[in-house]
Amino acid sequence: MKKRDIRIKRALKIRSKIKDLNITRLSIHKTSQHIYAQIISKDGCSTLVHASTNQVEIKSRVKNTGNISAAIEVGKAIATLALSVGVTHVAFDRSGFKYHGRVKALADAARETGLIF
Predict the structure, then answer these.
(1) pLDDT in tens, 7-57
(2) What are residue 39's DSSP bridge partners?
(3) Pick among 3.30.420.100, 3.40.50.2000, 3.30.2320.30, 3.40.50.150: CATH of 3-113
(4) pLDDT the model gives residue 94
(5) Of 43, 80, 90, 94, which sits 20 to 30 A from 16 (CA to CA)?
């Protein structure tokens, strides 16, 4: 299996467990240049809030959009947006990415800002 196929298989396993919990989820996606985060509703049909390094307000605060400091800014932004909508508890959907580096930095920043998962 290719590396991408292993990640997708891991992501499907995580998402099936989150679906059983019936809770809103914080889903992330990362590329070499950017990181994206979104809060998805319980039924999975709508995105409540989103944040990414493509947004002007986040891009202006960081020097490079593909590093840990950018992930921290996205984590803070998604947490403040989620709290403004009224979402406090989420399940962390890391989309099959391993929990280290930028993924861990985003999660820790979101927890510090007030999200519970």
Answers:
(1) 999 999 999 999 999 999 999 999 999 999 999 999 989 999 999 999 999
(2) 26, 49
(3) 3.30.420.100
(4) 95
(5) 80
What residue segments make up the domains of the chain, in order of their start? 3-113
Dihedral angle over CA of 56, 83, 109, 30, nearest 10: -50
Cβ(115)–Cβ(90) below 8 Å: yes
Of 35, 14, 45, 29, give the one whose Cα is nearest residue 117.
14
Q: Where are the alpha helices (DSSP H) in the chain?
A: 3-21, 56-59, 68-85, 102-113
Average model confidence (pLDDT) across the chain? 95
Cβ atoms within 10 Å, residue 9: 12
Identify residue 61 by its one-letter amino acid code.
R
